Amino acid sequence: MRRRIYDAFKEILESGVRHHLQFNPLLRDIFGLGPPLILDATIKANKISRFEKHLFNAAAFKARTQRNKVRDKRADVM
């Protein structure tokens, strides 16, 4: 019975099923999941922003490129 209910919600909500199962109190009650989990503010504060990730990856890419250039120069000398 629960499987049919879940399949019906899945068909209606499509890609939003996961989000609704996490935060929607009605769906959580229907499936017996308990109250919605509250994310701790410290967890959100520790998460690195998209821009910071971009800067970190750009710096890593630049360092990798420089390392490869040095390796190429050493290979030419030998």
From TrEMBL:
Q: InterPro entries, from UniProt?
A: IFRD (IPR039777), Interferon-rel_develop_reg_C (IPR006921)
Name all Interferon-related developmental regulator C-terminal domain ranges: 24-75
What is the originating organism of this protein? Oryzias melastigma (Marine medaka)
What name does this protein carry?
A: Interferon-related developmental regulator 2
Q: Which Pfam families match?
A: IFRD_C
The record's annotation in PANTHER family points to: INTERFERON-RELATED DEVELOPMENTAL REGULATOR, INTERFERON-RELATED DEVELOPMENTAL REGULATOR 2
